[in-house]
Amino acid sequence: MFGLRYHVASLAAVFLALAVGILLGVAISGKVSDAEESFEQERLEDLERDLEAANARADAATRRGEATQELVERAYPVLMEDRLADEGFAVAFLGPVDGGIRSDIEQTLADAGSGSPVRVVGLGVPVDALELQNTLESNEVLASYAGDGGDFAELGRELGRELVEGGETPLWSALSSHLVEERDGTPAAEVDGAVVVATWMPNAAEDGESQDADEEARSRSTWSLLDGIVQGLESAGVPVVGAATSEQPAELSDLYRSEGISSVDDVDAPAGRLALALLLSGADPGHYGVKETATDGVVPPIDTLPETGE
Q: What is the separation of C-alpha 32 from the centre of its chain, rounded to a whole number of angstroms?
């Protein structure tokens, strides 16, 4: 039989093994914990470095943007001087006239040597489709523009062409009481380009509600007319530019893009006015300004003005 000394030795060995296991476990656990802490620390340091780099890039971009704006502002008078001299332009508000943006556009034209707009028109929208349809159908000259189902796209295209070509404007004259809210300037002279300003948008239905059928029909008829007017302006072969201010929603630039015309989203700033003047003078079409929708930069490439004779 095993003696007491053997049992004591066995128990001592067991306790010794447990002690060694605990010490090894603590040592290993400590090393793992230290490794995890080191890894987390490295991750934090990497993230901090990435954040610092991103902030540095943002700061550099901001400084470049500010430097560009400052450069444009300093060079603005020289770059604008006589750029649109001896040229005339129409301004078409797709909706009521906005006095603020009209002033910005007029400032652009004045700074570029063009003077006041030849024609300014603000539309009374949404249109009363039934009344407009009846007016067109009751006139032999206008009956061909009475579109089916309130589609006034062809009427809009002809109105757009008249706005550019000038001379006699039978459609504008006949439909002024139905379509025009405000109209300035002379109808006679042909223009060299047009600025489009969208100031009307249909009321969106609330979540879970359907739009009133009559209101929806008015919106469709109105948009067909406005879309046609922009197409008519473009068909005349002159530069057509959609304008907005830096405070207006970026959706306006998206609207101009969908209409296939160039746009400027900051005509309330020198850079925006320069971009507008450049586009009206025939610069590369595109979408310019300070918003994300300005995919082609702040201003179009700038061509030097031809030297004047001594």
A: 54
Tell me the two tokens of residue 141: 């000259």
For 86, 148, 222, the CA distances from 156, given in Å and listed in that order, are 28, 14, 10
Asked whether the beta carbons of 251 and 228 are under 8 A apart, the reply is: no
123 CB-contact burial (10 Å; exposed 0-12 / middle 13-18 / buried 19+)? buried
H helical segments located in the chain: 4-80, 99-111, 129-137, 153-165, 170-179, 213-235, 251-258, 270-280
pLDDT exceeds cutoff 60 at 32: no
Average pLDDT over residues 165-171: 89
Rounded Cα distance, 108 and 75, in Å: 15
Q: ω into residue 96 within 30 of 0, thus cis?
A: no
Give CA 256 to chain center in angstroms. Answer: 8
From CA 299, how far away is CA 305, in angstroms rounded?
Answer: 16
Rounded to two decimals, what is the model's pTM? 0.76
The pair phi, psi for residue 262, each rounded to 5°, is -70, 165
Write down the residue that tokens 């109808």 correspond to: 187
